[in-house]
Amino acid sequence: MSNQEEKNLKKVLEENDLTDSEYKKIIETLKREPNDVELGLYSAMWSEHCSYKSSKPVLSIFPTQAEWVLFGPGENAGAIDIGEGLAMTMKIESHNHPSAVEPFHGAATGSGGVVRDILAMGARPVALLASLRFGSLEDSHVKYLVEEAAKGLAFYGNNIEVPTIGG
Q1: Is residue 141 flagged as an active site residue?
Q2: Cα 45 to Cα 160: distance, rounded to the nearest angstrom
Q3: Distance from C-alpha of 38 to C-alpha of 46, rounded to nearest angstrom
Q4: Catalytic-role residue among 49, 97, 105, 141
Q5: One domain, residues 96 and 158
Q6: Are residues 29 and 85 in the same domain?
Q7: N or C: fewer beta carbons within 10 Å in the chain?
Q8: Same domain, 38 and 115
Q9: Digit-coded pLDDT (tens) for 79-90
Q10: What is the pLDDT of residues 28-76, one digit of tens each?
Q11: Is-catalytic flag, 49?
């Protein structure tokens, strides 16, 4: 591969948020180099939003099997036994990319995903809690993202009468 081809590949991988090792895995799987559409598909499938590739190592420290864990990690919300015949459901949703592109709607639909998964467990959502992480608020774009994401979270919760109690 020439220097220019290497630079072009590096740029394409950066644009698709793929690592060198992920690119090699794609080639290994397809038994050829991927085309642009396939790169886009892998980029979406392996994004933080879909695969939790950077969150999984952190999330793995939490207990997933115990007498009080009714439903561990999976497709919907988790559920734990809180005694007296009651259970508590909870869900973590990552909407990093959607919230970076369109913070109001990205954050609002993130809340929607949480509510959907709580309802899918047969539970009733009583509150939303946002755990937002951004850069320095001295940066005007970061400040804009924070303000719009917070508005989106509140908007969604208010419309379905589930308060956002923090975040």
Answers
A1: no
A2: 30
A3: 12
A4: 49
A5: yes
A6: no
A7: N
A8: no
A9: 999 999 999 999
A10: 999 999 999 999 999 988 887 777 787 788 878 887 889 999 998 777 8
A11: yes
